[in-house]
Amino acid sequence: MTVIQAQLGEWDNLNHLLICEKTGDACIVDPFSGEHWIATCKKNGWNLKSALLTHSHWDHTMGVQALFDAGIEIWLHQDEEKRGWAGPDTNRFTHSALSSTTFKVGELLFEVHCTPGHSPGHITAIGNGIVISGDCLFLGRCGRTDLFGGNLKEMHQSLVYLKAVLQDLPDDWLVLPGHQYSVSDGSIPTFLSVSELLNKNEALIAAGNKEEFYALEFLAFDDSLAEKARRKRARNQS
Description:
alpha/beta; 6-stranded mixed beta sheet; 7 helices; 27% helix
């Protein structure tokens, strides 16, 4: 397998292109620009057949329309409907939270785990030496839970679940997050090994202890995005 990582956009988004070296088939995860990845695959002779969305926040789906228009399969979990996702997409995972199903890129097989909390149908893809964690897990922490469709309790449950999954993986597998954010030592890596993540990620370290986890400062922020989520929840409840 070949993996191409690129930081696109103004929100430090990390896109990941997965290529099966045997077949030349490719899948783009969380495309910020559909045109960019169509051109990249065309230039290199890869067959871009699918896009995998870890979740449906706008900064992870900016490139979906162009890919959809080009006839590329768009995959995400059906529970993203709970936060208002209406497409475009072509295929939806239906498995329950804290469980997994499989997904293929050429001859490469991945486990797709449903890990809600940042969003209702967030997924984490694991296989072939990598963990693609989207906004469920960054390298130093986890995604916020105060956006529309987010849930603090579900995030904690997902991280307890993922922690057990990660502990069973080889130490040298690489974790590839959805954003390039700094970690506690001030560095700004784009990946860490599984063993480094388990030892350094504040959210994973606290997972399993509700008091410690719920006290983490990065689970919610008093900003415009949080206010927008509060207004949307209020409208839906009225």
